Amino acid sequence: MNFEISESQQMIRQTCRDLAEKHIRPDFMKWDEEQIFPTELFHKMGEYGLMGVLVPEKYNGSGLGYFEYMDAIIEIAKVCGSIGLSMAAHNSLCTGHILKFGNEEQKSKWLPKLATGEWIGAWGLTEANTGSDAMRMQCVAKKEGNEWVINGSKNWITHGKTGNVAVVLARTGELLDAHGITAFVVERGTPGFKAGKKENKLGMRASETAEMIFEDCRVPQENVLGNIGEGFIQAMKILDGGRISIASLSLGIAIGAYEAALKYSKERQQFGKPISEFQAIAFKLADMKTQIEAATLLTQQAAFKLNNGLSVNKESAFAKYYASEVAVKCATEGIQIFGGYGYTKDFPAEKYYRDSKLCTIGEGTSEIQKLVIARAILK
Distance between alpha carbon 148 and the CA centroid of its chain, in Å? Predict the structure, then answer.
């Protein structure tokens, strides 16, 4: 693996930094406080090429690889985890599923709108009672002529209310059958498809999380992604890439928390000197930096393998598990270094703290990542 930073990586890092400073930093706390999902920002991000980072140029995407994608999410999440989360979900889940499993007609129809940010994407796997246990899903699709009729609901869906198009996993076979689930593309405005409850969350409050409801929602056969019954297998492959997204999101939050704490520790004085000169604080910063570097290497390893078409099931689990736990640790230590000020909204430490916890839960909990890793090393 080459550790040299490529020209395209340098370019996208600077692009994301410029966008974050100009279009995110001025309003990110307002969006968080008021739970505003800033749709116009994502249209703007599309103009910067950040809504289709991995999409080939022929579909109006940026045509870049996973190293650039990783860097892009990190730079955005350093400023605001919510925006990084929504960017990651749009790119790796909805857009990524169509890119990986759609036919040419489907790619040409939906990818240009998603890659340019004209449309925002959602991805529906999770249900109220089927988080990690996805094969027990109750959302079903039944064939009627040349259409599929979908009934059920999906929960905890990023952009479940605002997304213009969703990739939806529904049961088309028997319960617990890994080949009994199919992926459908459903456009907003399709009769029988509506938004339900929007979640009131601890963190990531500017990233919309909502329920999607399907009541006799009719979808044409041409909206099926891949073959009937392949949906669950497709979803597991999409989540392998999605875990790199969440690892990158975790890194961005961890780095943001670390950099804020480092800066504050050099400015804050106690007993006549900066608190960074006290070993208790210096050792916290050393631990934070070491953990960030280790998490970065694990995520780069997964990105390298995915760029080269190799299996990343174990490696993406390594990265997601470790990086998400590091995000929580760094955010927690950041609060401690800020002391009382870290507990206020005058500094960003409390937001990193609130946002970080989602990383250990979304797209497979830390416990599920351990299960994936254990199965890989024990087989």
Answer: 29
pLDDT tens string 323-360: 999 999 999 999 999 999 999 999 999 999 999 999 99
| Residue tagged active-site, from 75, 211, 230, 363 | 363
* CA within 13 Å, CB half, 116: 11
User: Can you tell me which residue has the tokens 């406080």?
Assistant: 33
169 in Cβ contact with 183 (< 8 Å): yes
pLDDT tens-digit series, residues 208-258: 999 999 999 999 999 999 999 999 999 999 999 999 999 999 999 999 999
Residue 142's SS3 state is strand
Catalytic (active site) residue 363 = yes
d(CA 6, CA 45) in angstroms, rounded, equals 22
Using CA atoms, how far residue 75 sits from 34, 68, 253, in Å, is 23, 11, 9
Domains, the chain, with CATH or none: 7-120 (1.10.540.10), 122-231 (2.40.110.10), 233-378 (1.20.140.10)
Collect contacts of 271-274 with beta carbons under 8 A, ≥24 apart.
none
